[in-house]
Amino acid sequence: MNRGTFRSVGAVLAGLITIVVLSNGTDTVLEATGVFPPVAVQRERGFDAPWMVVLAIVYRSIYTVAGGYVAAALAPSRPIHHAVALGAVGIVLGILGTIATWGISPAWFTILLLVLGLPCVWLGAKLRTEQLLHRHTNRNTA
Q1: Alpha carbon distance 44, 38 (integer Å)
Q2: Residues 6+ away with beta carbon under 8 Å from 11
Q3: Sites in the chain below the pLDDT cut of 50
Q4: Is 102 helix (H, G, I), strand (E, B) or coil?
Q5: What's the predicted TM-score (pTM) here?
């Protein structure tokens, strides 16, 4: 593999790590502070209230946008393509996660996270490309 390939794989991997670390970190903090019930309780009876599921969808979506942004920012070229590659990896992992958590979380929660993944990483990459375009435009007009 050449250097560009390593950078491409690294960009996608960095985006994935961003999403996983932020999501799991937030889950851990919310469980430790009592906002979410412990995992054992979630497995036994699920979430106590719909707002917990909505909160998890919101922060996970934000973190997925951040992951798409990171993948695009680190991509050696074609940032949108790297974010879409991250989205494809996310779909595979999301399917596995949906299977693993079936019966723990509401089915619509895991399926919605799966559906939102690709649009969120695309949005993150789009934000990054727009940022670069804006910087480039401002340099040329100054």
Answers
A1: 10
A2: 70, 71, 72, 73, 74, 75, 76, 82
A3: none
A4: strand
A5: 0.87
